Amino acid sequence: MSTQMQQRSSTALDGEVIAPKTSTRSQRDRKWRIKVTIGQVTAIVLILAIWQLVSGRLIATFLISSPTGVAKDFVDLIQTKTMWQDILTTSQELVLGYGIGVIFGIAVGVLMGSVKFLSDVFEPIIAGINGIPKIALAPLFLLWFGLGIWSKVAQASMIVFFVMYYNVYMGMLSISPMLVKLFQVMGAKRGYVARKVVLPSLSVPIFAGLKASVPFAMIGVIVGEFIAADRGVGYFVLQATQQFDSAGLFSGILVMVAMVLIGMGIVGFAQKRVLYWQKVGNGR
Amino acid sequence: MLEFRNVTKRFETPGGQEVNVLQDVSFTIEDDEFCVVVGPSGCGKSTLLNLALGLIPASVGEVIHNGKTVNSIVSSDVGYITQDANLLPWSTVLENIMSPLEIRGVPKNERREKAMEWAVAVGLEKFVDFYPGQLSGGMQKRCSIARTMVYDPAMIYMDEPFGPLDAITRTILQETLLNLWQSKRKTILFITHDLVEAIALGDTVVVMHGQPGMVKTRIPIPLSRPREIRHLAASSEFVELHTKIWSYLEPAANQQEENELI
Fold it and tell me: What is the ipTM of this complex?
């Protein structure tokens, strides 16, 4: 305490005492982070404790289960073969739906961003289609693509497409025309400008879209499985609900959350690799 | 050599009206001349550059670059330094300086070597692996100057390149530019709204004003070279030139003052 006081007064008196100032700052940062972590852990423990206490006392167990019930059920569940089959099915739908949506979203976004005639013609049409609550199309996809994974893939890619498309299209519009002109004056041909100016400029909105799309893809897949399926994590959750197995329901949701987090982790990892320059730039 | 021959540039406003931005502009920039165009904002200076670079067509008259009429983007043997540094934020300083050489298909080793040479010349040798976001505005500008000088264009267009910098940084960069120009003679068309800068740098100052912008006069700057910019403003020759050029701008200034009061 007293040393801290001394440091503070000495920095106040002459601005040259830089080393102790920065060290106290990093110390303060670390203390702050520890405080935040403690706060977060406390909040989670408190919520779980209230849930545990309320369960079976104020609210019936079949409605909200309990943390210990869910934990036990979750551990049992991930040891069953059927759960892993469900996870595999949902993963397939997720990856395919995400992939197709992303590819089409980027392609259409780039096309619309580069050909003014196309964007003038199609932008209002795309906006109109985007106005459809896409979940309402689930029965239609079922009709078109059947009970298997493809109706879910279609549902997910439909949602992901719009997220990606808008990110990329806006990204195309925000590319600096001055930068492009400058490179043309420097002698750059179209290919060079596309590779060295346009594509890197788009990497930021593309990653924004990729990140936002992961949970959206999951929504698409789960809605598809809710409508009609004979396997998948969404199907499992629906079954659990119909059997008033709330522990199973919560466990299924936990599995979904884990899958989304893993997907986000993969995108985040790729983002750090590709957008290395951005972090450096901001950390001036 | 660059020649503006009776150039008029007309733009259509969103309301469908036609507005002349430049009217009947004629002047010539000789090889190796440092020509500065000075005038208040809105007098069509930047439009002049866009015309010279072929980024926009002239409505009347023509721009002639090395004997050829400019009718598409000029991309051979010209450099362009803009108000913002316009560096690639995802490339390091060295990669940025190398990019025009890459465009020209210069072999990789030679690219590095030349870019390094120019990084040293503009004083960025310690920052070659930095990203533009980590540099100050002045350093970014140095990088963009090196990126232009590295491919040795015969003619360089500069559009208020030092405008956004603070006074001290600006003076230092002006000196850097003059030193580079002294050793590597180039034809320069330099746009500015700063009269002091115009006199300090140029062989010739072209004074423009009005809406539509017109060339009022063209004044040779007989100050000896090399010039020491930081002490220049104190010399009597400088003051004389300043007074003379200002006399051309003063009626325009009075006019503008009236307009802005309305």
Answer: 0.89
Which residue is closest to B147 within chain A, CA to CA? A186
Q: Contact B55/A181, CB-based, under 8 Å?
A: yes
CB contact B100 to A (< 8 Å): yes
* H helix intervals, B166-235: 167-183, 195-201, 229-232
Neighbours of A31 (CB within 10 A): 10
What is the rounded CA–CA span in Å between residue B1 and residue A223? 69
Domain with A12, as residue range(s), is 2-54
| Residue A66 within any structural domain of the chain | no
Residues of chain B in contact with residue A187, where contact means CB-CB under 8 angstroms, are 75-76, 100, 103-104
- B33 to chain A, any CB pair closer than 8 A? The answer is no
C-alpha–C-alpha distance, residues A50 and B233, integer Å: 77
Per-residue pLDDT of chain A (284 residues), as tens digits, is 444 444 444 444 444 444 555 567 888 889 999 999 999 999 999 999 999 999 989 998 888 899 999 999 999 999 999 999 999 999 999 999 999 999 999 999 999 999 999 999 999 999 999 999 999 999 999 999 999 999 999 999 999 999 999 999 999 999 999 999 999 999 999 999 999 999 999 999 999 999 999 999 999 999 999 999 999 999 999 999 999 899 999 999 999 999 999 999 999 999 998 888 876 544 43
For B98, nearest residue in chain A (alpha carbons): A186
Residue type, A139: P
The answer to whether A70 touches A250, Cβ cutoff 8 Å, is yes
Residues A7 and A46 occupy one common structural domain: yes
How many domains does the structure of chain A reveal?
2
Q: Which residue does chain B place closest to A202, by CA atoms? A: B90
CA B181 to chain CA mean position, Å = 13
Rounded CA gap, B235 and B223, in Å?
A: 10
Residue of B nearest to A198 (CA): B88
Tell me the CATH number of domain B2-76+156-261, given options 3.40.50.720, 3.40.50.300, 3.20.20.70, 3.30.70.1350.
3.40.50.300
First to last CA, chain B: 43
CB contact under 8 A, A186 and B103: yes
Q: What is the DSSP letter of B32?
A: T
Is residue A200 within 8 Å of A141, Cβ to Cβ? no
> Are A192 and A185 contacting, i.e. CB atoms less than 8 angstroms apart?
no
User: CB-CB: which of A186, A280, A282 is closest to B100?
Assistant: A186
A34 to chain B nearest CA, in Å? 30
DSSP assignments along A121-177, one per residue: HHHHHHHHHHTS-GGGGHHHHHHHH-SSHHHHHHHHHHHHHHHHHHHHHHHHHTS-H
B73/A185 touch (CB, cutoff 8 Å), yes or no: yes
Q: Which of B86, B102, B132 sits opposite A182 (nearest CB)?
A: B86
Separation in Å, CA of A188 to nearest CA in chain B: 6
Tokens of A269: 């990892």
